[in-house]
Amino acid sequence: MYSDPTVYDILHTPGTSEEVDTYLWIVSKHLQLNKSLKWLEPACGTGRCLRLLAQRGYYVAGFDIDQEMIRYSKNSGLACELFEADMIDFNSQLQCKFDIAFNPFNSIRHLHSDEAMLKHLEQVSQSLNTGGLYLVGISLSDYDNDVPEEDIWTGSRDDCKVTQVVNYLPPDQISRLETVISHILVENKDEHINETYKLRSYNKLEWTELVANSPFEVVGSYDSLGIQAGSRKLIYQIEVLRTI
Ligand SMILES: C[S@@+](CC[C@H](N)C(=O)[O-])C[C@H]1O[C@@H](n2cnc3c(N)ncnc32)[C@H](O)[C@@H]1O
48: Cβ below 6 Å to ligand 1? Predict the structure, then answer.
């Protein structure tokens, strides 16, 4: 699905420091921020966020379903608990409990049913200390008004320049699956990588109902800069969940 971890990391590492600042800011609104806090990232990919949190002195751990992503994150010098696991079954591999779990970039929507999502949320709640938080980055649907969208990402490292064009085809409320079509060009190799995958959709009500059936409650909603969402309709939001 994310075929080349190096290409993923080149594209998505820029801006990660500011992104991590935002998570720290949001967490500080709900918890006493201190360096003893332990962070867990389900679906951590190449570990781009975990690397920065570790550099800032936090204990971190992560896992991903993709063996190549985990290999990349280990080779990048990230010395922490890193292992291969599915978001619906990872708890038994953790060595301790955490204060904060976080899951940006809509990765949670790779789980395609309520059953899988509830299993995931149950596992995350069991991995957190009392009062722990789960920050979930998610784009919510508005089925009647969603239109096709396009994102363009660019990045470069050494002599490698990469461009990614991603098209999102809106889901309908029956299938609840958004189609994501990605085209990547690796310029120095003239290599083209095409991928298509599906993400489960949630409108506001579906998301609220799902969380209501889980061990969590929503205690905050923020935009990608860490500003409270209020009544604004956002393209992407960071939901802060706390165990009940
Ligand atoms: C958009 S990437 C995000 C990676 C990382 N969280 C970041 O912010 O850069 C989505 C990641 O989810 C992982 N993934 C997809 N389905 C998964 C599952 N069921 N369990 C664990 N990881 C999964 C993919 O392998 C990929 O690394």
Answer: yes
Query: Each residue of 36-70: pLDDT tens digit?
Result: 999 999 999 999 999 999 999 999 999 999 999 99
Q: Is 19 in the pocket of ligand 1 (CB under 6 A)?
A: no
Domain 149-200 has CATH 2.20.130: yes
Distance of CA 46 to the CA centre of its chain: 12
| CB distance 12 to ligand 1 below 6 Å | yes
Q: Where are the domains of the chain?
A: 5-140+201-243, 149-200
Span 132-136, average pLDDT: 98
pTM score above 0.85: yes
Superfamily of domain 5-140+201-243: Vaccinia Virus protein VP39 (3.40.50.150)
